[in-house]
Amino acid sequence: MSEQQPLIKIVKGKKFYLKLTKPQRIQHFILMVTFIVCVATGMPLKYYYYPWAKTLMDALGGVMATAYIHRASGIIMVAGFIDHLCYAYRQINKFYVRPAKAAREFSIMGLITFVYYSPTFPRIKDGVDMKNMMRYYLFLTDKHPRHERFYWREKLDYLAVFWGTNVLGFTALILLKKGFFLQFLGGWGMSAVTIAHSFEALLATADIIVWHMYNAHVNYDKMPASPLFLTGYQPEHIMKHEYILEWKRINELVKNDPSLMFDQDEYDKHEEERQLKQYEDTKAYMATMAAAVDNERAYQSGHGHDDHDGH
Amino acid sequence: MNSTQHVKSYFFFLALSVMSVALMLFAFSPKATASDQENCVLCHQYPLLGTVDDNGTLHSYYVSGTQFASSVHAEIMCSECHRGITKVPHEKDVKIDCTAACHVLEPTTGRPFSHKITDDIIKESIHGSENKHVREKVVEDFPECTSCHANEKQELVLTSRIGMEKLVMAEGKARCEDCHLNRYDYVDRKMIHVLRRTENPKSQQEIVDMCSECHNDPELNKRHGLVNAIWSYRENYHGKTMVLGLPEAPSCIDCHVVEGQSPHKILSVADNASATNKENRGVMCARADCHPTASLGMGNSYIHWEIDKSRYPVQYWLLFAFTILTVASFLGLMVIMVMEMFRMIFPKFTIIKQRRDK
């Protein structure tokens, strides 16, 4: 990460909490775009017998064009996935391996513990939360489970994408080099790979449309769309409703180190002052530049002040 | 001028005008009258000519003279194919016989033309009931010429697959006319005769529809122990792209006929000479206009597998597993969503009170 983003931003009196960092947003954006392109170019082939299939395919450039678009988009998606793995590796290095080695406390157990407690890794608490959530939904308790940064709902999503990208990616590789792999796989293996690619795509599409769209854009006060995937910041009322533990943790962090918070309102209040100061600086710069010409002429003609010592 | 002369000249003009009208009608009338020397169209021109059989099915005997005149058999008299007509009104069930020799002389041999050679190829192919690979000899199930071929229109079909434009046609025709006269449309007919054979005149959809007539019949498939070739073809990338309108998409005969052989020579998979024989499949896939860079391993792919527990267990159980997975995850998530929405309507209500704080 090149720049440290503030954990809390205050805009128009409302608090926003950092949920997705910039690299995470970029990863999400790549995944989102390539996923949509792959679905749009792949589904007409799966459902070729519906009248919309030909219309959509022709609109996207016909069978041959969509075949190449689908492949290109899939390759970018897999590249994004590999980038995500590298990102995870860098994060592990940055937050555990190098600090632990500096402290001479590095151990495999410690590494595993770190990975286990990393935000997207499924852990025991998710199972407990899920059980309690079901009890809450069934009116058996009035205690809503308290969640940290990512909870079972999002982890299910994440694991589905993780598993789906693997299945789709490997089957796509085999389908892409069909002639080569058919020598080892045989006909039944290839038809199995085709089924797996096609049905895993359907599963992923259905889960994204129903589960992810609902969680991210419909569920609890997020209608019509949550700006989280664009801004990376979550409004406070959603933080309190869904991620109360994280809300408390970030508040604690900010209390100890106020520099982690950025007040946009306060910043905007001093806008005119800042502009006036900037203008002074700009004027000073222009004056220096204007003076430089006379200075240079005087220097070349042998008069005037010489900046260099010697020749 | 007396009255007799008057009448004479009147009749003369009347006769002249009638003749000229008749001449005009003759000149602009379709060529049907020229080929229909037996005058069959005299009766068959009436669209309502037909019978209704005991099952209530209407059999139309209508023949459009104009359409017949522009068909491939325009120069052949009706009785040359409909053999056995001796009187008018003629006998029932005068079926056509394509192997009969007709009056058209085949120029290379000088003998009367007949479709017997093609018929022999069909008889030797898997579509002949005498083929040794035929499982069930149900003669009615095997196709006749007319099962696939109607009396097609004599026209040049320039599909996009060969990429020939009308302009090329005109240029070619001009070269022919350097030496030959286009009398009686001779050049046109010769060009059409040759050029329409350089490419399959039927579209892939038409060929698949033609094969579907029999191969999409579940009873027939069961009788002969065949897979549903049409369903499996459509579910395959080949068939899907054909439906989606890819001009290069292969139809049935693109894979089932050895390149360069008669399209009628479709052989059993078990036959060593067959294009779909295990040994020949890879070569067939790697045809220059299909998968030229493919390795011979491509011949291993299953094109015609179907959902069948005993014959294709891997595919069956994989499909089963994915269906369960898709439906279960979909339903499970839907149930959670609905439960959550209900809970949100009554956020305070609970059966067991636990909350102490606030």
How would you describe what is shown here?
The complex is a heterodimer of chains A (311) and B (358). By secondary structure, chain A is mainly alpha-helical. Chain A folds into two domains: 18-264, Fumarate Reductase Cytochrome B subunit (Up-down Bundle), CATH 1.20.950; 265-311, no CATH class. Chain A has helices spanning 22-46, 51-59, 62-102, 108-116, 124-137, 152-176, 178-218, 228-231, 236-242, 244-256, 264-269, 271-300, and strands spanning 8-11, 14-18, 233-235, 261-263. Chain A has a four-stranded mixed β-sheet with strand order 3-2-1-4. The longest helix of chain A is centred in the first third of the chain and has 41 residues, at 62-102. Chain A starts with 7 loop residues before the first strand and ends in an 11-residue tail after the last helix. Chain B has 358 residues and is mainly alpha-helical. Among the domains of chain B are: 3-30; 153-200, no CATH class; 204-300, no CATH class; 319-358. In chain B, strands 1-2 form a two-stranded antiparallel ribbon. In chain B, helix 12 crosses helix 13 (237-243). Chain B is elongated. At the A-B interface, helix 2, helix 3, helix 5 and helix 7 of A face helix 13 and helix 16 of B.
Spatially, the strands of the biggest sheet of chain B line up as 1-2
- Please give the radius of gyration of chain A in angstroms: 28 Å
Oligomer: heterodimer
Number of strands of chain B: 2
Low-confidence stretches of chain B: 28-33, 159-163
Work out the helix count of chain A: 12
CATH topology group of the largest domain in chain A: Fumarate Reductase Cytochrome B subunit
Mean pLDDT of chain A: 88
Number of helices of chain B: 16
**Inertia-based shape of chain A:** extended
